[in-house]
Amino acid sequence: MTSSSWGVGPSGTAGNGGDVTPPGWYPDPWGQAGRRWWDGTQWSQHVDGPFTVPAPVQSAAQPVTGTTLLGLRLVAGGALVVALGALLPWVKVTAPFVGTITKAGTEGDGVLTLLGALIFGGLVVRGLMGRWSRGQVIGALVVASLVTLVAVIDTADVANRVGDLADDAAVDASVGIGLWLTLLGGIVAVAGTITALASRRR
User: Fold this and answer.
1) Is the pTM of the predicted complex or chain greater than 0.85?
2) What residues pair up with 177 in beta bridges, in sequence order?
3) Contacts by residues 154-160 (CB-CB < 8 Å, ≥ 24 positions apart)
4) How far apart are CA 85 and CA 81, in angstroms?
5) Would you give the end-to-end CA distance of the chain in angstroms?
């Protein structure tokens, strides 16, 4: 700051001639404060607040790239497989005089797994469309884990019932393709969410 600059007003005109800038608070011409008082003829020593640069706003969401993107794609694939599995047979039984009977997942717990696939699938679509937060990843992991748990319990239950029916040579029973797909999709989705979470810790 030079002594001669004290008389140069906010408009850049000299305080002792030309257009007169009225006294008031103006942006500090030297950047040492937020504002400095102009008395009509020269700048004063009076300043109003420090000069600060606003800090950039930090978002909880992070861009989707690299390993995170791979994880989200696995979750999306898992959601599709789980949804398909819910619509397909979870159990298949063939017996004399009755023929083959199948029971789709949506006639039982498949309704829950289908709903779960829609939830964690919806979360991952949001991530693939733009930005993806850690909270969404954790939410998808919880739902995918619950879907996988339902599939494990139902697979064990159906397998036990199939074992009981196996004593009757005339009856052929097996775990349906839909239940196996539900289990596979759930495992893939869990692996995908864990992959996405792990990539965020780096």
Assistant:
1) no
2) none
3) 154/90, 154/108, 154/109, 154/179, 154/182, 155/179, 155/180, 155/183, 158/90, 158/91
4) 6
5) 47
